[in-house]
Amino acid sequence: MDSGSGLGFDMESVNYKILMPGADSDNLCLHLHWPIEACIVLFATSWIFATTVPIPLATAEIVELSGNDAIVFAQSQFSSDVGLLTPGHYQWSAWLSAQGRVRQLFALLRPDPDRLLAWLPRGSANDMVTALTRYVMRAKVALRVVPDLVLHDGEAEPSASGVLTPADSGWLLALPGSTPRSAVLASAPASPAPDPRRLVEWQLADVDAGLPWIGPEVADMFTPQALGIERLGAISHAKGCYPGQEIVARLHYRGGNKRGCFRVSIEQPAPPRPGTSIVSATGSALGTLLYAAPSDAMRSRGLAVLPQQEAEHLAPTLESGACVEILGPAGKSPSTD
């Protein structure tokens, strides 16, 4: 019998199993000594509490910058205003090439006055350390890969955006998007092991939030405006020089950006690799897939960089022939796709 409780189980059978020791008859119509409401509340409370435990998803790609010059060095290299980042806070930032293309996109955490952590949701910490080390020169800053932290799915209701909250020997930070989400970067738990199914759900939530994460396959290909990372607060137009700053400023103040980031649905259950080309009906190149995850048994959902002006009139496909449906601009709340 359905209780209507919304807890997803048969209340009569559960009551029978739980409460039978307190029955004073053997027939199916049991007379119970304990109030049913108290049992339901107790069970529901335990169930809700269990869902707030952070769930491990995958190894976190993190670069540490430490030393007396860590803040100054980061300010000279990254696109956000690191000088405004106070200890105990984080901001979204990027590292660009001299041509104004995004090489890495990350959350920049400042847990201590002379230490920064760059969490790369889809990037490579090893690649970033190797490339960034060339610019250290005489700066008193040490770069290293942090090897022992894991990305967890955190609380459903995160703390205020920009506030770095200590959590489980690590840190909790809010993610952009219309649905409240938070990431916990903490040591790997003894159990449970990372859950691939939850990781797929997490990646789809990233897609729906329009988070244009950059992996090695698409690094150094797109401007900040094409990816739309200004809405994340990852670009400062008021700070001094940094690599690619002139290109970014020109596109911001004079215009000229012709591409944007879009949510797409692909008629292919196995998600295409990041960097997969998207083409027109005639086979000409239209855009590039940033990343995707399986959404059901027939389709994948992802983010792609495509022409802005023509997006509504395109009939794109992959080079394999799989149809690509444009769902809308990244960052806008999706309807039921």
UniProtKB/TrEMBL annotation:
Signal peptide: none annotated. Transmembrane segments: none annotated. GO terms for biological process: iron-sulfur cluster assembly. PANTHER family: TRANSFERASE CAF17, MITOCHONDRIAL-RELATED (PTHR22602:SF0). This is Aminomethyltransferase folate-binding domain-containing protein. The lineage of its organism: Bacteria, Pseudomonadati, Pseudomonadota, Gammaproteobacteria, Lysobacterales.
